[in-house]
């Protein structure tokens, strides 16, 4: 009896595994789930834990052993998606950024989006002018520590906070001045709402950058936002395509294509190259999901998308979930008492600390990250900002989901499309999450390999001038990087030729296979004695009898004659 009980317990343990999800405030939620549980089950557990109803904007992200990021698919089994062994570790993140985050129905949802954007700001994904950076940081201060109190906040108190990858003393003083004079009396909820209103006006709001290279070998960052497809190079947005202009997204190997119609007769094809085929597939799936979420009116309009025009090759993927319009309609129907929010306050964060004790670090952010595979670091080195930027394409931001104030502000600044005083290089955003402990040696290596640039120097008038520490890109190291980019371009051309040859061979093999199947069917029809109704009906048709006597029988006699002749030659030899 005891042995039977023990064996049953062991079988139950084998059918279960532990799963840890790191939340946006860096607390952890751990649960035990069945081995065949799907992603939706885990996501529902987390949303119930957070008392979250507007959950369609969020997703669960994980990193595979090859350091490639993925979004957990809710319709598939968790264990089949994870390439590692349990226990599993994942992160809750904003997957679809709300077009108007300040207008979200519930405070708990706004707070979680606030934490995500604050994280984006810290890791260099949300890039902005110095004046905007000071206002955003002041709102974070007000939300976390409240009104300025001379007794609690001594001179230089803002230097204890790390809002950006890098920043200057002048910016710290400006942050403190705004916090002391302009935000007095604001509650945390009001400050968070004002922070969201300011953030949604920025060009890089909602950007989750994917590092790629263009056809010339120049590094670029591709991203999908609530308003469309964006390409960033240097400190400029070089391409913007609204979702209603994007007609198709395709990928093959490491090559990613975007098809769009900007005008009635103007068709555009943008081509970029991802670091790996897995990264390119992840980029394609993110694009398919974002296009469906923001572009469609109903989830019933979602269709399965193929990465290729040929039915026998490529990947197939279908977005599962509600679209933005349905989410907003459902949110308007929420009627309940607002849930209690436990704000993190001054609790230190693992990957996005708000407050750090000790001297200010202006060049190396005080984060703790897991040691990264050397190929990732080499990838960051190859993705340093290039001096060559494609011409800026001026487009409007008109969209059915866009706030009017954002559209007006964008129209005023659309001529230059400069998004920041510094280059866009979000190194942290391409590193894997979740994060763990690391040494200062890794931080130094990140700085060498293109550490995230954000707000350091107060030089609003020198937006196009290389900053100190960036000039090396155009020296000897810059020349070698440019030569490497040329080599990569040549390699990419060879890869394209090889892919074309493989595609032709694959098409030829499929055609031969189809012809062979048709030949077998023809032989069965003409030579076999199978008395099947389907075959009998075909044999009795006049067309088949004419084909049999006028074409097939002469062809059969000709083949038999040739075979006898070949056989005679072989016998005589």
Explain what the structure shows.
By secondary structure, the protein is an alpha+beta fold. Helix content is 40%, strand content 14%. A five-stranded mixed sheet has the order 2-1-5-3-4. A four-stranded antiparallel sheet has the order 6-7-8-9. Strand 3 and strand 4 form a beta hairpin. The longest helix has 52 residues, at 476-527. It is elongated.
Strand content: 5-15%
Helix-strand pattern: HEEHEEHEHHHHEEEEEEEHEEHHHHHHH
**Which word captures the global form?**
elongated
On the 0-100 scale, what is the average pLDDT?
Answer: 75
User: Got a strand count?
Assistant: 14
From the alpha-carbon coordinates, what is the Rg to the nearest angstrom? 30 Å
Cross-sheet strand order for the largest sheet? 2-1-5-3-4
Proportion in helices: 40-55%
The assigned structural class equals alpha+beta
Distance between the termini: 80 Å
Low-confidence stretches: 346-416, 428-489
The largest sheet is: 5 strands, mixed
Number of helices: 15
């Amino acid at each position: 009896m005891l042995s039977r009980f023990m064996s049953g317990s062991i079988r139950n343990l084998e059918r279960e595994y532990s799963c840890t999800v790191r939340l946006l405030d860096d607390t952890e939620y751990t649960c035990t789930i069945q081995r065949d549980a799907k992603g939706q089950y885990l996501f529902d557990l987390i949303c119930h834990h957070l008392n979250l109803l507007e959950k369609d904007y969020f997703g669960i992200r994980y990193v595979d052993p090859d350091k490639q990021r993925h979004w957990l698919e809710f319709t598939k089994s968790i264990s089949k998606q994870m390439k590692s062994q349990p226990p599993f570790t994942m992160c809750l993140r904003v997957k679809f950024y709300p077009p108007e985050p300040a207008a979200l129905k519930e405070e708990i949802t706004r707070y979680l989006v606030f934490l995500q954007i604050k994280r984006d700001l810290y890791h260099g994904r949300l890039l902005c002018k110095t004046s905007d950076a000071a206002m955003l940081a002041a709102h974070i201060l007000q939300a976390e520590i409240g009104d300025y109190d001379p007794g609690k906040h001594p001179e230089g108190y803002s230097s204890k906070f790390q809002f950006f990858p890098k920043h200057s003393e002048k910016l710290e003083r400006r942050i403190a001045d705004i916090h002391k004079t302009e935000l007095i009396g604001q509650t945390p909820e009001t400050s968070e709402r004002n922070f969201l209103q300011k953030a949604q006006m920025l060009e890089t709001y909602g950007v989750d950058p994917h590092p790629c290279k263009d056809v010339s070998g120049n590094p670029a960052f591709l991203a999908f936002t609530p308003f469309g497809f964006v390409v960033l190079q240097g400190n400029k947005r070089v391409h913007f395509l609204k979702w209603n202009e994007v007609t198709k997204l395709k990928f093959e190997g490491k090559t990613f294509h975007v098809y769009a119609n900007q005008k009635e007769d103007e068709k555009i094809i943008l081509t970029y190259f991802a670091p790996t085929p897995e990264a390119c597939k992840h980029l394609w799936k993110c694009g398919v999901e974002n296009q469906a979420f923001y572009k469609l009116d109903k989830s019933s309009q979602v269709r399965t998308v193929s990465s290729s025009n040929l039915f026998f090759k490529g990947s197939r993927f279908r977005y599962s979930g509600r679209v933005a319009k349905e989410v907003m309609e459902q949110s308007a129907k929420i009627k309940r008492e607002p849930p209690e929010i436990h704000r993190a306050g001054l609790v230190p964060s693992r990957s996005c600390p708000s407050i750090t004790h000790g001297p200010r670090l202006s060049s190396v952010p005080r984060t703790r990250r897991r040691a990264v595979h050397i190929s990732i670091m080499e990838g960051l080195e190859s993705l340093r900002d290039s001096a060559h930027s494609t011409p800026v394409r001026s487009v409007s931001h008109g969209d059915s989901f866009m706030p009017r104030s954002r559209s007006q502000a964008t129209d005023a600044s659309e001529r230059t499309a400069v998004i920041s005083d510094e280059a866009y290089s979000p190194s942290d955003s391409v590193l894997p999450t979740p994060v763990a402990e690391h040494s200062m040696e890794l931080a130094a290596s990140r700085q060498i390999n293109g550490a995230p640039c954000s707000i350091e120097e107060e030089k609003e008038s020198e937006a196009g001038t290389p900053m100190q520490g960036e000039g090396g890109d155009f020296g000897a190291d810059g020349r070698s990087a440019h030569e490497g980019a040329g080599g990569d371009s040549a390699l990419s051309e060879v890869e394209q030729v090889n892919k074309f040859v493989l595609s032709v061979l694959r098409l030829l093999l499929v055609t031969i296979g189809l012809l062979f199947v048709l030949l077998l069917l023809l032989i069965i029809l003409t030579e076999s004695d199978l008395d099947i109704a389907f075959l009998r009906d075909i044999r009795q048709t006049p067309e088949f009898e004419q084909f049999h006597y006028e074409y097939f029988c002469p062809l059969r006699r000709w083949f038999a004659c040739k075979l006898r002749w070949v056989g005679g030659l072989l016998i005589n030899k």
